[in-house]
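Input sequence (428 aa), recorded before submission:
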Amino acid sequence: MHDLSRRLPASAFRYQNGSLHCEGVALDAIADSLGTPFYCYSAGRLRERYRAFAAALAPLGVGIHFAMKANGNQAVLKLFASEGAGTDIVSGGELARSLAAGIPGDRIIFSGVGKTAAEIDAALASGVHQLNVESFEELRLVDAIAARRGVVASVALRINPDVDAETHAKITTGKKDNKFGIDVALLDRLDNEVKALQNVRILGVAAHIGSQIMKATPLIAAYRRLGEIADDLKRRGLPIERIDLGGGFGIPYRGEAELTPASLATAIAQTVAGRGYHLAVEPGRTLVADAGVLVAGVTYVKDAGHMRFLVLDAAMNDLVRPAMYDAHHDIVPVNEPAADADLTEYDVVGPICESSDTFDKHIRLPEMRAGERVVLATAGAYGATMSSTYNARALAPEVLVDGNRFAVIRRRIDIAEQIGWDQVPEWM
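Predicted structure, token format:
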């Protein structure tokens, strides 16, 4: 029997009466209403993932701040906020989105290597819990802006611990040659830097070594290093009381062994828990990835003689991860195939004028026809947030399913509206 939905979480996606459902809603019914492509998220799965992390980390007193770069939709943010989460943000736009979703400033951690003066000012105005400062240059800028506002900024020093996250080169952030964080070797300069600062209070240290981390080993190394640095800075007279452990926890795209909430809790317990520091983590992808799918229609089944192409109406502008990272997303028919259906090999592609607009190659699926639909699985993270209007394509809508009901949580942004964004000079 072809178990093509085996890597979709059964609590969220399963075949019912021959059609793939998200919770109690048929994906075909949503597609008939909205057209394709569209993103679909399971509210139940989002809650399930968050609660698993909360249950594992609460006994250790670890706060959870959702890394919203993975999925910044207002409905998703409100759902996590209702569960008790704060946010981890990396831009002024994400600050505005967090505040608009009802997340107060004191539950927001502002990370990012290139914060502008305007973003820092907005963060201080909103009373963010913590600015994760990534350089001495940024530290001095924060001090100057805080002085103008007449406030004292709460900051953590983001440390670059030179730890290999053992992940894709384009998403590692904790090695010595990455742009992120303050080199451990430069911390000797800190004593002199602090003397000149009147409007910052260095309350913590932080690190984030990369994304899609599947093993605890690099996390343990980074956490242990952070604990040592925190202790050292405290001995040097800084009021260190917080350790921000970052995120980067991976999700199985190809059936790999997952870094579970329990194994993360064990890593924290073995390194920094129980040492008197307030602890925080910033999970993103792991909370939302498998709660979402991209639903697409089959436009053509192209027979090229030596091979067959499944040409979808979704493209790299909708889901760029395969083109950018060679990332894998399982592809599953919306119509349940017969148990004994023959399988055919396809290259699954989009319509954009780029050879990189390819979702997968040489995959075996039941015989597909134009007009049928598929889902690209594990697309709830870095799907909609990284989408674009390349080739003047519409931005795909996002849908949230909760039980037997669904709602559009971002409408389709079509070409007519996009043309309205442009301004032609008067002289033309």
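Checked by second reader. The mean pLDDT is 92.
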